[in-house]
Design goal:
Radius of gyration: 17 Å
Helix content: 55-70%
Strand content: under 5%
Largest sheet: none
Structural class: mainly alpha
Number of strands: 0
Distance between the termini: 15 Å
CATH class of the domain at 2-68 and 121-181: Mainly Alpha
CATH architecture of the domain at 2-68 and 121-181: Orthogonal Bundle
Length: 190
């Protein structure tokens, strides 16, 4: 499948691996893929994110991802829904952290297996994003997988990254609109 990736899509994957390494994570996550997309310049996805204003709110978006990670992957929308049932997620997080230490819910959940030096695996969720990017490309009639397909895959699948994108005005429908209105929305295969 990787041979169908455009240069920009391969760069996003490589950038996600770098983000993972800088964060000290043991695996590449969906969050790392999004951060790498935000780093890209002059790509179809970066143009779509810019047209939605997401690029200008990167610090706030990173803060929302950090907060969700601290809450063990629970988005603000999920926390608000739980509050409707009388569950204060912030209180639960505070109690867990009081017992188990700061960031206890944000702990890296991958198994600690021996891996070759420099090898950073992808979480099952990050792998699923890359697989969904193939489906997004096929649905658009493309014969390649571009960075725009990775963005579509991130926005389309329920989870923290999609929730944060939605919170910042980049839900699946808006991403599709931005790709469609921002030009042909198709990256050149390279």
């Amino acid at each position: 499948m990787f041979e169908k990736f455009t240069r920009s899509a391969r760069d996003v994957v490589k950038g996600a691996i770098s983000h993972s390494g800088r964060a000290g994570a043991t695996a590449v996550t969906e969050e790392h893929l999004l951060l790498s997309l935000l780093d890209a310049e002059g790509t179809t996805a970066s143009s779509a994110l810019a047209s939605l204003g997401v690029d200008r709110r990167r610090e706030a978006l990173e803060g929302a991802l950090r907060e969700a990670r601290q809450r063990g992957g629970i988005s603000r929308a999920d926390a608000e829904a739980l509050a409707g049932f009388g569950i204060d997620v912030d209180e639960v997080v505070a109690r867990v952290e009081a017992t188990h230490g700061s960031g206890a819910l944000a702990a890296d959940r991958t198994t600690k297996r021996w891996r070759p030096a420099g090898h950073r695996p992808f979480t099952p969720e990050a792998k699923a994003v890359l697989e969904r990017s193939l489906r997004a490309a096929l649905a658009r009639g493309d014969r390649h997988i571009g960075d725009e397909h990775i963005l579509l895959a991130l926005a389309a699948h329920p989870g923290v990254v999609a929730d944060v994108l939605t919170e910042y005005g980049a839900d699946q429908a808006e991403v599709e609109r931005a790709l469609r209105d921002g030009g042909p929305g198709r990256a050149r295969a390279s």
